[in-house]
Design a protein that fits this description.
Elements: H1 20-31, H2 36-39, H3 46-50, E1 64-72, E2 75-82, H4 88-100, E3 106-109, E4 113-121, H5 126-135, H6 137-147, H7 149-153, E5 157-166, E6 174-182, H8 189-207, E7 210-217, E8 224-231, H9 233-236, H10 243-259, H11 261-281, H12 286-297, E9 307-311, E10 317-324, H13 332-336, H14 338-347, H15 352-375, H16 379-394, H17 400-412, H18 417-429
Antiparallel strand pairs: 1-2, 3-8, 4-6, 4-7, 5-6, 8-10, 9-10
Bound molecules: (R)-mevalonate.
(R)-mevalonate binds at residues 85, 266-267, 269-270, 273, 370, 374, 379.
Amino acid sequence: MNSGRRQTGSRIPDFYNMNLDERQAHLVEALGRPLDGLLGPEGLEPALADSMIENVVGVYGLPLGIATNFVVNGREILIPMAIEEPSVVAGASFMAKLIRESGGFTAKVDPSHMIGQIQVLDLQDLQEAETTLHEAKTQILEAADEAGPMMLAVGGGARSIAVKTFAQSPAGPMLVFYLIYDTVDAMGANSVNTVLEGIAPLIEILTGGRTHLRILSNLADRRLARSTCHVSPASLAFGEFEGKDVRDGVVEAWAFAAVDPYRAATHNKGIMNGVDAVVIATGNDWRAVEAGAHAYAAREGTYGPLSRWWVDESGSLQGELEMPLALGTIGGATGVHPGARDALALMGVETAQELSEIVVSVGLAQNLAALRALATEGIQHGHMGLHARQVAIAAGARGDEIEAVASAMIEEKNILVDRAEELLRQRSDG
Ligand code: MEV
């Protein structure tokens, strides 16, 4: 259960330069409630983990950062991200800061329609079986709803069917039955699989064939999420880089991914840095999201970028990300993991659709962060800078000391806590 809507600004000046305790205190105060599931050491206790999977021996931690500055569909949102890679949270926060200047992200999500598949073999006549299934559509949808009364009770349930036939396959002629099923605020794998197993006997009776696999498809392309944003060239300018050049550099970087699958894979990896971090923090199945994203990226027969960047009539940089997102705010680990529940509460998210709107926007922000860096100073610059700042903070640097110690370590190419401590001692000695 989350605590309902909260109106906290997502802009927290100097959050980056606070220490861990200060950041935690700020967050708890801003939210007006404790966040022990996210912030406390007792987040996921081993005893609870033991009830989630088999052979449990402990729990495994990941850094949890908060991306600031996000405005999605007019709402300010602080976004929890669980990820081990430096620069990701800072990159998302920084791009969100630029994008909020032009109104933030506009996101839209399809209804939660998942696809379930039943493989049918040993058929005498594929065409006849296909026709029979279409004729029996109402009967099948009713049977599916009988097999899933809980989803029906919350407004979900069977929506439609489709059939594909393969005259030839390594297993002989094959028919695939598709059930389109609305899982509302659940990711839906369990519900869909239960229903598929429930209706498989009916599919056998109707077709005279043998049903084999009955399983959800992770290519959730009826559950797409889209986010768009625009940034003015003025907001993109920094250092010696002019805004127009940064804008055009981002579009050229996108063009590389549009023509070359080797680049597209890395381009999409950058998007998934943001997407996965929020998906993990909210207890969702990131393997399912990954599988869907990459299958969708290859939907035209060649692997391509999930996002698109172009220059609009006003000269602004426009970006759009469209991808399948099968996420839940109920069921699975989302309902069990105390950190996941707090993560949803922190974002004030109540529905799976709202969560998807946020996740797809973080993916777009992350993509822009990577392309902007790649198109200008290169990716290593930011990585080293961030790493050095983190090391300086870990060594106890505060305020102005952080930048000074980090810069000295970068110059010396010696970024270690011991060295940072030494530099801090030297500063305080004199
Ligand atoms: C690194 O984790 C992600 C990037 O490689 C993404 C990209 O190249 O677009 C920086």
